[in-house]
Specification:
The protein is mostly helical. The protein has one domain. 63% of the residues lie in helices and 2% in strands. A two-stranded antiparallel ribbon has the order 1-2. The chain starts with a helix and ends with a helix. The model has no long low-confidence stretch (mean pLDDT 90).
């Protein structure tokens, strides 16, 4: 685990999420997920083995389970990447720091891409989802595609080569990073620089050189990693902070709404959060009161 002082230095106000994650994740991990295979579900529905109420129950249960899984995994992943950033900072390992920061941004963008609108969709459709979960929707087929698609992409997307699927094919990494760029201009520029440092390119060795007194380039075995890390942080002071905040808010709002369905472990720490300063949080609170 990274030092608290380093977390506060690099993540600023967002460092308050770390103790919250430490409390929430152990509670959430007590849950055991219940899924049925797509093949079984299609066969059971096509052969008339499922009533409309049973079909609706299975679909909603699947959506709520995936929502919980996605939210919890997002919190775990972002914490691990954030700790990697802090550890590489404290050990003054510049390429390691660049790699960890790149991972943090990519991971954050991926989580935001998949989860950003899930909480609001769950809150907006809460009454119908609750009826279906209880087996009370016996005539109409419930539609959850708008919630399922981003969740399935988050959970299942991978590189598929030439065979591209609109949901199951992973996007280009920079497309995920653009989710952060929307709130923090310069995130994509930083991401490309980090990639250049990490990949076999001229930037991956340029950091080893300094100019001597004659203006010539000299390679130094003990390169000024700490100084280069500090300069990068000074140039992009908010990227780690904003990435952590956006990722955690997307996940925490999902867990907050899921409380209404009484399916997953209770997380009392969520009651202490004030969403009045978060636009999405304010909208979700309004939807839950309606």
């Amino acid at each position: 685990m990274a030092a608290d002082a380093t977390r506060r230095k690099l993540f600023k106000g967002a460092a308050s999420y770390f103790p919250l994650i430490a409390q929430i994740v152990p509670r959430a991990l007590q849950h055991r997920y219940s899924f049925v295979s797509d093949e079984w579900f299609r066969d059971a529905w096509n052969t008339g083995k499922l009533s409309v109420a049973e079909r609706n129950h299975i679909i909603v249960l699947d959506v709520l389970e995936k929502s919980h899984l996605a939210a919890v995994s997002a919190l775990i992943r972002i914490e691990r990447w954030a700790d990697a950033v802090c550890i590489m900072h404290d050990t003054a390992n510049f390429p390691g720091f660049a790699s960890a920061m790149r991972g943090l941004i990519e991971n954050g963008g991926d989580s935001i891409d998949g989860l950003l609108n899930i909480a609001s969709s769950l809150a907006e459709n809460r009454k119908d989802l609750s009826r279906a979960l209880a087996g009370e929707m016996k005539a109409d087929l419930i539609g959850c595609a708008a919630i399922e698609r981003p969740l399935d992409h988050y959970v299942h997307a991978r590189w598929t080569g030439k065979e591209r699927h609109p949901v199951l094919t992973a996007k280009a990494n920079v497309d995920y990073v653009r989710q952060i760029e929307a709130s923090l201009p310069g995130a994509v520029s930083l991401y490309h620089r980090l990639c250049a440092i990490v990949h076999p390119s001229n930037a991956s060795i340029d950091w080893l050189f300094d100019l001597d007194e004659e203006g010539d380039r000299r390679m130094k075995l003990a390169a000024n990693d700490a100084g280069k890390i500090g300069a990068l942080c000074d140039e992009f002071p908010e990227v780690a902070d904003v990435t952590l905040q956006m990722t955690c808010n997307s996940a925490l709002l999902i867990l907050h709404v899921l409380h209404k369905f009484r399916l997953h472990p209770k997380i009392p720490e969520l009651r202490k959060l004030d969403w009045s300063q978060v636009r999405a949080g304010r909208e979700i609170e309004r939807l839950l009161r309606s």
